[in-house]
Amino acid sequence: MGWLENKEFKEQIQIGEEIDEEKNVNPTEEDKKEIKVTLNVLINATKKFSEATELGRGLLGTVYKAKVNDEITVAVKRLFPRYKGKINEFVKKEIFNLKSVHDKNLIRLWDVHIGEGLQLLVYEYMEKKSLGSALFDTKSELSWKDRFDICLGIAKGLKALHRRPRGKLVHGNIKTANILLNESYEAKLSDFGLANVYSEEDQFSFVKEETSKGYLAPEYFQGSDPTTESDIYSFGVVLLEIVCGQRNKVRKSNQETKFLLDKAHSYKDEKLLKLVDKRLDGDFVDKQALNILNLAVMCTDISPSVRPNISDVLSVLTGKKSIDDIRSRSVDASHVSSKTDASTSMEKGPEIDQFPQHFVEGKNNK
């Protein structure tokens, strides 16, 4: 899901209306390609939306795989009936949000079908499904190069949202399940642009459900709106999971909750390399791994203003800046920021063991 953070931007579009290209963006031939599919074809291709073609489901609806013909396969999100009254206005915003940003690391919305009791969004299909599926499978085939390229791809997609000329877009729900991979393991961000349909009940359910997964920034639990800084926090958790090959949050058999973040925040310098996925059998680039792990720690600082922005993250990943370059800026920011009071937010929200220890203590290991 995503939020249009530029509150002054009120532009509306109609379904089928021509959308201007972004400034400073040169769309590729892939960007210009359009896929239009009739409703009957989608119904038949999903076998009348049967469980056999189901790819997954969330708060808004269920996603199905639809093989349109020998050359084209798409993903179809069928929204739940309770959104029928909101769908027309939502679709305008959804089309604008997704079609106004051209980047190869963002999922494409191909088509929309509204009517006859159905509200369908047709997206490009990603062969390798989600990063979570690829990463947490015990037989994961992700090499170090795959993982590094995925980190880079996610960062580029996030920059396309955060640095959009018409007004930055906040994703709001970055997690491994919302990062999709094609047959070449190229990463694309999905599931942004959907927040306009969420009811208050949905928002409550969202926070309750996502708390159990360990991706949400601490400010969520004080009722703050999603921001680019909260996106960076969630991205930091994903970076950590990619390098370590483990979920950030795990509930043990004795009901004790363990956080990978707590280990990362307690380690310093070379010791962080102990966290690298053992399945790689040492086949990784030390400097790249250490940079990503340090970025993960910095991105998950409990103070939003101390977290690096996405441009700084990309500069480190591409070798244009060092960790020390952006760490010094973060240290300066920490002198003028106030730490998030995680304990206050926890009194109003989930139980204390739902949070990493560095939330509870209100400090970070620098």
From TrEMBL:
Compositionally skewed regions (Polar residues) per UniProt: 335-346
GO term, biological process aspect, one: defense response to oomycetes
Keywords of the record: ATP-binding, Cell membrane, Glycoprotein, Kinase, Membrane, Nucleotide-binding, Receptor, Signal, Transferase, Transmembrane, Transmembrane helix
Disordered: annotated segments: 329-366
GO cellular component labels: plasma membrane
Gene3D superfamilies in UniProt: Phosphorylase Kinase, domain 1, Transferase(Phosphotransferase) domain 1
Subcellular location: Cell membrane
Molecular-function GO term, any one: ATP binding
Domain called Protein kinase: residue spans: 49-323
Membrane topology reported for the UniProt record: Single-pass type I membrane protein
Protein origin, superkingdom: Eukaryota
PANTHER family in the cross-refs: CYSTEINE-RICH RECEPTOR-LIKE PROTEIN KINASE 3
Family: In the C-terminal section; belongs to the protein kinase superfamily. Ser/Thr protein kinase family.
The protein's name: Tyrosine-protein kinase
Organism: Trema orientale (Charcoal tree)
